[in-house]
Design a protein that fits this description.
Blueprint lengths: L2 H7 L14 H4 L24 H16 L4 H10 L12 H10 L3 H8 L1
Helix pairs in contact: 4-6
Bound molecules: iron/sulfur cluster.
């Protein structure tokens, strides 16, 4: 566990009234509530050279985890906003995100406004 996660789990927060930007762990605290927090990360990121049915099976299994995730919208928005190049984020595969970028100039904003 990283230091930031330890602080988050301990309930350490920014002092009230502070004008400092929020700590990074506040901006990403949703990740600790994801359904994948204890899952094997290999489920969400393809090994080198994986193609065809093997990739489809792994992506589908990862998307099944995302389908029951309480932070799926935040995760999807993050994946689109930072253009995560690899992995399943918010139930979207790499191919799903590429198609979203072709359809829209700002697919992350569309996810945010739909939520
Ligand atoms: S949406 Fe999927 S990848 Fe994102 S936090 Fe939830 S389970 Fe993990």
């Amino acid at each position: 566990m990283s230091l930031s996660a330890q602080h988050w789990r301990a309930g350490v927060t920014k002092p009230r009234g502070s004008r400092l930007p929020p700590p990074v762990y506040d901006a990403y605290e949703w990740q600790w509530r994801g359904a994948c927090v204890d899952a094997d990360p290999h489920l969400f990121f393809h090994p080198e050279g994986e193609r065809g049915p093997a990739r489809l099976r792994r992506d589908t299994a990862a998307q099944a985890v995302c389908a029951r995730c309480p932070v799926v919208e935040a995760c999807r928005q993050h994946g689109l906003a930072v253009r995560e190049p690899y992995g399943v984020w918010g139930g979207l595969t790499e191919g799903d995100r590429e198609r979203a970028y072709r359809r829209s100039k700002d697919p992350a904003a569309e996810v945010a406004s739909a939520g």
